[in-house]
Design goal:
By secondary structure, this protein is mostly helical. It starts with a helix and ends with a helix. It contains 4 helices and no strands. Helix 1 (3-37) runs antiparallel to helix 2 (42-50).
């Protein structure tokens, strides 16, 4: 095996881990914005969404809870 290939493989792991973490941070930022708009606990959802190995489960859970509960923005606009 070429020494260049061994070096490339050792570089791809941390790069992939960093890319996955960046995606988690972007999703957490979107959850923060939406949770504030929906009058949910934005800091709690954001912190849980950034946690490694748990964040993607929280993202799916947030989407399910958000779809099942009534929208707070629709209620506030209907009251006006």
């Amino acid at each position: 095996m070429s020494p260049y290939l061994a070096h490339t493989h050792s570089f791809i792991g941390p790069l992939l881990m960093f890319a996955v973490w960046i995606v988690q941070v972007l999703i957490a930022w979107l959850i923060w914005k939406d949770a504030k708009e929906q009058k949910m606990l934005a800091p709690v959802w954001t912190i849980l969404a950034v946690l490694p190995m748990f964040g993607y489960f929280v993202d799916v859970l947030y989407l399910l809870i958000r779809e099942l509960r009534p929208s707070r923005t629709a209620e506030s606009s209907a009251a006006l």
